[in-house]
# Entry
Amino acid sequence: MRAKLLPLFAIVVATKIAAAELPQFIVPGHEAEMKALNDLHALHHDAAFSDCTLWDAWLPMATLWASEKKRAQYRASLLNRRIDAEGYVSMQQHRGMAHSEGWPFPAWQQSGGPGFHFSILDDVWAIQMLGLKALTSTDGWEIKGAEVIGIDPAAGLKLKATADVVTVTTPPFRCGTIVAPFARVEWAAHGLKAESQAGIEWLLEGEPTWPEGRVVAFPAPQAMQYANVPLYRHPAHAGVLTRYRLRLDHAAGAEIDLKSLIAAIDTRHPITNALFLRGCGDYFAWTRDVELLRQNIGRMRKALHFALKEFRVREEKHVFVPWVGHDGRSGIVIGPDGQKSIRAGLGVGNNYYDLVPFGAHDAMATAYLHDALRAMATLEKSIQTHAEWQIPADGTPFDAQDLTTLADAVRTDFQKRFWNAETGRFNGWIDVEGRAYDFGFTFVNLEAIHYGLASPEQACSILDWLDGKREIAADTSRGADIYHWRFAPRATTRRNIDTYVWPWSNPEQIPWGGQIQDGGAVLGFSFHDVMARLHSHGPDDAWKRLREILTWFREVQSEGGYRAYYAKPGRGTLQGGGPAGGLGMDQEFLESVLMPQVMLHGFLGFQATADGYELHPRLPKDWPSLTISGIRLQDRVLTITAHADGRLEVK
# Structure
């Protein structure tokens, strides 16, 4: 069907839908399948919200059109997303034992680095998972220029500065700098002078005295806050660490609370900036909330400037991750003799699949950055067109054509750099030593098609592999077994027992398919499977895959739902709430709400824009029509019907 641009002012609202009612998908002659799809949507919609940036590219686009509640939630969430002084967008997952704005783990307890906690208030995860306990004395510490008042269960070590310079030196420890790229301090101070400055010094093995002037400075604290001090940027931060010294100047008379001081792994993910930009773009398109755009545009531009510079995108035409621990090499090495070696500090995760060491030349991060470039190009073009919005020039505006040109260059590079001609699919990443990694990453390949990175020939090659029309001899899963779990392809098709972050050091103890990142599957990402098929093979192939998913879902529901169904031996193991498992569909798997979105974004081809919407319907041959009700676009609620003969009805 021909694409149509429908501006909002041309819409006549003929019906009013109750705010509490979820949209309905209607296809005459397929009532049973549509009931299952509507049930699936209802099952996952309400829980589909998170302040964690990881879900920003998925949950806003899946929920903003379906309920007013989600709009309010995401308005507050996107405005409150933390962005540091350089422009890195915080992950905002739960409190962890690593970089405070990154992923919660790997923790210092898993790295051999030091961690000193005078208070463990709110550290529920670390208490439960790592047995974290608070220090009860200052034995082994050297404190100068301050009087120890005591240790408070909430605030930690309480000090009263008696001199202009206060130094707090940890007890001795021993760890390599590779597991301590950051020193993370959580502390507060009251009564400091405006000119006060903080700093971290370190002592290396074999050094008899503290080297003069070797310090990384950072802003002094006020209320209780984290400071992630980038020691790795200092040229002398190399070797074996033995002590930290925290210093604070112009401190006389101030009160200082030290909650914790740890050696932190760099657990930032290189995808957060791109995901945040996609979430913000989706929010604006669905709501046309100009006031939010005025408040947020400077932050968005800052986030994109950071990503382009930090990951050398203009120079490399892809995402290159330069961070310590993110060079793409595994934290596990199995030698020729079969002996396993653990390389602490290597293999740190970069995305949703947090045990696998994507990094260095990163295909997954590049896909998201490519999508963000196009989203920002669209937004900057709209801002330029609508002067009446009065959007400030905060954060250095981008030229829309420049971003589009860069996105095109990234796409060209992606098709060449990450394509594995031998297997006919994309690699996941290429490490700093030039080694490419291909474990049959179905999610990388399907998202590459969905985000428009794959060429038509590459897309066909990928789908032929997934459909068993061609097989890769080295794969563990081939042919029909790729869809063993029915609702989705296996996340990977080749067994991986040696390429992980170092704390996941015994992957061989979990059977194939018993861990999501090694032959398991995630329900929500079937969205990309169906969308890729629609894009490459057309609506009939996409509908065939969707019907198979709905047949599975009806069977699962008839036996009491996910937990009851998979409680029966031999069907697979569910992950959720802590224990590892091979299948992800409930509890923390919020993205399951993506699955029904193939109706709106795929078969109906609905695309929200700043000026209204576009429709690109693509109906399977046996659909006489598709109706979707309750589409909340900006200040309207729409019911749209696309007919097989090309007619469109909008109410």
In short: Residues 623 and 629 are 17 Å apart (CA to CA). The first strand starts at residue 4 and ends at 7. Residues 363-385 form the longest helix (23 residues).
